[in-house]
């Protein structure tokens, strides 16, 4: 029999409650994800996800962006802090920072993000209200490799959610978040298994086949 796959060391960056972090912790605990979350780092000392990590015995660190006058200085310090843990993958899980090109370059090909829209629609903030204001019939979430362009890296997997007639931003966001907890662990598993990579042309490859577009989970009944 072959040897068991070695767990991929992962650092997770958060700014808030960390529900996507929890989905990864749960997947690791169930043996569904061949990863080891070696640290959770936040730019906000009050981030609820830090306590989630501590409850599971995961190392935590806070690097407060307010202590840095320049974005580049903060990202340089963050790069150094991440390097201390020597991760094979860095996962952005509600990390509310616009990253500098230098930071992205330092982690190229091993930096994933989840965004609450069907990219390339609605990059940036307030995506749920923007989808409602546009009269969209479906909305969702996207997992993508991070490049220097904001929310512009190649999308690997999306979940589509139907927009209901009586939706407000809060109800729609809750349904999208449920799907985020499915698609983010899926993409992290693909990466940890060696099935997913970013090639030299900034194209995502799954099982060494270029993705011409994202894989899609359709929860829009």
Explain how this protein is built.
The chain contains 6 helices and 11 strands. The protein has helices at residues 19-29, 48-55, 71-83, 101-106, 127-133, 169-192, and strands at 8-14, 35-42, 60-62, 89-92, 111-115, 138-145, 155-162, 196-198, 204-206, 209-210, 215-218. The chain has a single domain, classed as Rossmann fold (3-Layer(aba) Sandwich), CATH 3.40.50. α1 packs parallel to α6. β4, α4 (101-106) and β5 (111-115) form a beta-alpha-beta unit. It has 221 residues and is of the alpha/beta class. The mean pLDDT is 96. The strands form 2 sheets. It has an 8-stranded mixed sheet, covered by helices on one side. The chain has a 3-stranded antiparallel sheet with strand order 8-9-10. The active site is at residue 115. It catalyses: N(1)-(5-phospho-beta-D-ribosyl)glycinamide + (6R)-10-formyltetrahydrofolate = N(2)-formyl-N(1)-(5-phospho-beta-D-ribosyl)glycinamide + (6S)-5,6,7,8-tetrahydrofolate + H(+). Keywords: Purine biosynthesis, Transferase.
Task: Provide a compact summary of the structure.
The chain has 221 residues and is of the alpha/beta class.
Q: Strand percentage, roughly?
A: 15-25%
What general outline do the C-alpha atoms trace? globular
Low-confidence stretches: none
Q: What is the CATH fold-level name?
A: Rossmann fold
Family: Belongs to the GART family.
Function: Catalyzes the transfer of a formyl group from 10-formyltetrahydrofolate to 5-phospho-ribosyl-glycinamide (GAR), producing 5-phospho-ribosyl-N-formylglycinamide (FGAR) and tetrahydrofolate.
Active site: 115 (proton donor)
Pfam families: Formyl_trans_N (PF00551)
């Amino acid at each position: 029999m072959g040897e068991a796959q070695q767990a991929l060391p992962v650092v997770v960056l958060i700014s808030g409650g960390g529900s996507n972090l929890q989905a990864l912790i749960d997947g690791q605990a169930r043996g569904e994800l061949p990863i080891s979350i070696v640290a959770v780092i936040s730019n906000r000392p009050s981030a609820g996800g830090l306590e989630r990590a501590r409850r599971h015995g995961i190392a935590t660190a806070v690097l407060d962006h307010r202590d840095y006058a320049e974005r580049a200085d903060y990202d340089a310090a963050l790069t150094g802090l991440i390097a201390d843990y020597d991760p094979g993958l860095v996962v952005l899980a509600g990390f509310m920072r616009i990253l500098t090109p230098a930071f992205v370059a330092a982690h190229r090909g091993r930096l994933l993000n989840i965004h609450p829209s069907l990219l390339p629609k609605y990059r940036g903030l307030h995506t749920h209200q923007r989808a409602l204001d546009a009269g969209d019939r479906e909305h969702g979430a996207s997992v993508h490799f991070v490049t220097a362009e904001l929310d512009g890296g190649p999308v690997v997997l999306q979940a589509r959610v139907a927009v209901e007639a009586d939706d407000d931003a809060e109800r729609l966001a809750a349904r999208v978040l449920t799907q985020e907890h499915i698609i983010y662990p899926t993409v992290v598993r693909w990466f940890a298994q060696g099935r997913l990579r970013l090639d030299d042309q900034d194209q995502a490859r799954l099982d060494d086949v270029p993705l011409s577009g994202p894989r899609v989970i359709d929860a829009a009944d």
